[in-house]
Structure formats: structure tokens, C-alpha cells
Amino acid sequence: xxxxxxxxxxxxxxxxxxxxxxxxxxxxxxxxxxxxxxxxxxxxxxxxxxxxxxxxxxxxxxxxxxxxxxxxxxxxxxxxxxxxxxxxxxxxxxxxxxxxxxxxxxxxxxxxxxxxxxxxxxxxxxxxxxxxxxxxxxxxxxxxxxxxxxxxxxxxxxxxxxxxxxxxxxxxxxxxxxxxxxxxxxxxxxxxxxxxxxxxxxxxxxxxxxxxxxxxxxxxxxxxxxxxxxxxxxxxxxxxxxxxxxxxxxxxxxxxxxxxxxxxxxxxxxxxxxxxxxxxxxxxxxxxxxxxxxxxxxxxxxxxxxxxxxxxxxxxxxxxxxxxxxxxxxxxxxxxxxxxxxxxxxxxxxxxxxxxxxxxxxxxxxxxxxxxxxxxxxxxxxxxxxxxxxxxxxxxxxxxxxxxxxxxxxxxxxxxxxxxxxxxxxxxxxxxxxxxxxxxxxxxxxxxxxxxxxxxxxxxxxxxxxxxxxxxxxxxxxxxxxxxxxxxxxxxxxxxxxxxxxx
Length: 503
Hints:
By secondary structure, this protein is α/β, with parallel strands linked by helices. It has helices at 4-11, 17-35, 66-71, 87-102, 113-118, 135-154, 218-238, 246-261, 266-282, 286-302, 308-325, 330-343, 347-354, 365-378, 381-394, 401-414, 418-430, 440-453, 456-469, 475-478, 488-501, and strands at 43-44, 51-52, 121-125, 158-162, 176-185, 188-197, 202-212.
């Protein structure tokens, strides 16, 4: 997959940006006419990145020894005879020819469903260790691991293999193993979880849990699962536990991109796009594409709706690719629910994405948050409050907790519970104190809640914080269609508050 700007620079680096853009459009139009004549498109160019569907292409470079072919009588280099006459392209071509000669053909395989499966991070779940007579601990431990396995599978970077009922005693062939020891002590289960790198038996993550034998509700257990999953991923992908192959490098880029999304500034969002683009180029995955699409919602917020049309084109291609790769993944569907609701304002499409998940909700705070915002946009305030509360409960220990808390601010303001919205809003701000900026949605709804409660001085203080971050902010902006407020009920709510302040 190639970014359009990168293609322009590669092929028309010595021309102006307008000429390069027009030349690329013409070239893609001609290629589509030549390649996309039979069924599903071979060349994917809908508005965003440009990609070839490699499952429909057979190329000899994936099957032969390049060095041997070049040195054979009559042999030629990769793309021999192609004369683009652009210095950037010539440099890329030289680097590519060197890489092809040095890389074995088996490592240049087309990315198919089989290779994607093989290249996932292999995590082996081992049998729980407990006293044989401690049946309650065995049952609770198995249930805990079951939920953790399902949560791990939502992140399609993991290939999770369950060895709890297997005769296999080791985790040979796996990258990491996950095991648990659990006992009953009085009225508590005491469990010790650990994740071990199989190659050298280094413990990369461990956690001890003390859980009551009675009265542990599903949401609290879900929060524990979410927090454990975050810690495991943090240990595996941010530390030195991974190697330097493409899969592992892609995972690091993806983690970096996701983290930068929530830093909110335009430079960080630009860098997030670069990291996520690199991730999908190295190791295309459904959730990577979905996060790339999700980034667009934050870009729209940062630019106050100025680039909505351009973002729609790019995001549509990314969302389609995410669903093509795995349309059943709960994380992909949760992320794209917000994309279609917030960015496209297509509440019907957003609802169709999240509806299949509602019968057995995943342990994902982003699922409940997307559900909450969609219900808020549609005017289903009670449902929005419930889902927002669950989102905040699951994601309370996340580094992105302010995002989930902001969703509660939005829902409670919509419900007219202004005092509660104010408490939640001030907490959401406190969660962002170490960040470069405060999320503008937090400030907008908090200002509205203060004003609608009648505390005009406090509302003016918050409006001042908005203007400190965005000196050009005005109420008139909120009335513009492209401003990032996707529903009229949300727009009216904020406008009524800010007008009361005298804005």
C-alpha cells in the first residue's frame, strides 16, 4: 500500500505538487481501466492509499532466486527497461533491486490468509496450576483465562493457542506462553498470572490478583481483563521482548501510532499517520487499518472540520480494507462504528457494525464507548449513559481513560445531569494534565454543562481554556456543517450552553 503523496514524490519529484497530483490521478485512472475489468478490483484507489490486491496477482519475483535469474544468460534486473527519469524513483529502484537480490524468495511471499495466520504472534495458554480438590478455584481460573483468551483474540496480532486440554506439556513453537496459578484462601481467590518468552524463559510480565469468591460482577471482571491485556501488550510490544522482523516492527509502529492518536496535537496526529501507515505496509492487519481509519476522527477534531471531504475519501478506503481482512473482529467493528457515526454521520451503517456484538459484548472499553456515542448522536440518552459508564469502568486504568470519561461527560450533559457532568468533566481534565492539550470535546461539553447549570463564571473559565488552545474559536463555527459535531441534538445542546455564556 502506498500513500498518494509518497507516489507523487516518487514519480514526479521534480515537478510541482499540482502537476504531480494531476499526473497521478491520470495514471491511476488508466491503470484502473486496464486492471479492473474482471470482478473485484485488482487496483484499489478509492480516495485514499493506493494498493494492489496481491491475492489476485501472480508475480515471478515471489517464486525465483533474483540473484540467480539476473546472472543467468539473458537475465535482467527488476523493472529493466523502465525509464521514469526521476531521481527519487531511480534511488528507490536501486534500493529495491538490492533488497530483492539479498532476500530469499520464500521471504517475499504474497500476504495471504495463511501467511497472515502464520505471522501472528503465537501465544500459548497453558493449563492452570491449582490444588486438585480446589474445584471452585479451577472453575474460576478457567473462566478468567477464557475471557482473557477472547480479549487477546480481538487484537489480531495474536495467534492464541489453548493448551489447557492438550497433552502437550510445553510451549514449543510459541513466541510467548501465558500461565496461571490459582488457590482459594478464605473468601478470596489468589491468582498469579505470568507471560514468558519461550526462547529464553524470561518472564516479561506478571501479576498477582486477589479476588473475592462472591460478588465479583461482570464489569469489574471485564475491567480486570482489559487492564491485564493492556499490561501484557505493553510488556510485549514496548519492551525488548520482540525481535526485528517485519511483524514485530509493524506491531511497534502500530502501538506508537495508537498512542500518538490520543496526544491530540496536529504534529502528533501527523506522526500517528506515519506510524500506522508503516504498520500496514509491513504487516497488513484488520485492526491496524481500523485504527488508521479511527485516527481520522481525531484529525477532523484537531482541524475543526476543515478537511472533512478529504478525510472521508481516505477513511472510506481504510475502513473497507479493515473489514475485507476481518469483518468479524470486535475491535475492528467497534473502531469503525465510531468512524461511521462521527466522521460519516451514517448512523445506520454504524449501527449495523456494532449490533452483532451486543448479544455477547466484548471486554473492550472502545466497544462500549462507540455504542455510547452512537446512542447519544441518535438521541437515545439513557442507553448512552449506561454504555458510557461501562466504558469508563472498563477503561479506568487505561492511559486513555480521559477519552472514556469524556464520553460520560457527553452522555450526562445530554441527560440534563449537569452536576454529574461537571464532576466527570473536571476529572477528565485532571486525567489530561500531562498531555500537550486538553481534548476539545471535554471542554465543549463541560462549558455547556456549567452554563446550563447556571454557573456562568465557571463556564467562561472553560471557554477561556478552549480559546487558549484555539484562538480562532467562536460559536459561529459550531453552526457550520463540517464542524465535528455529528448530530443536531448534540449541536443544539452545546450551542444553548455557550450562548448562555454570551459567546
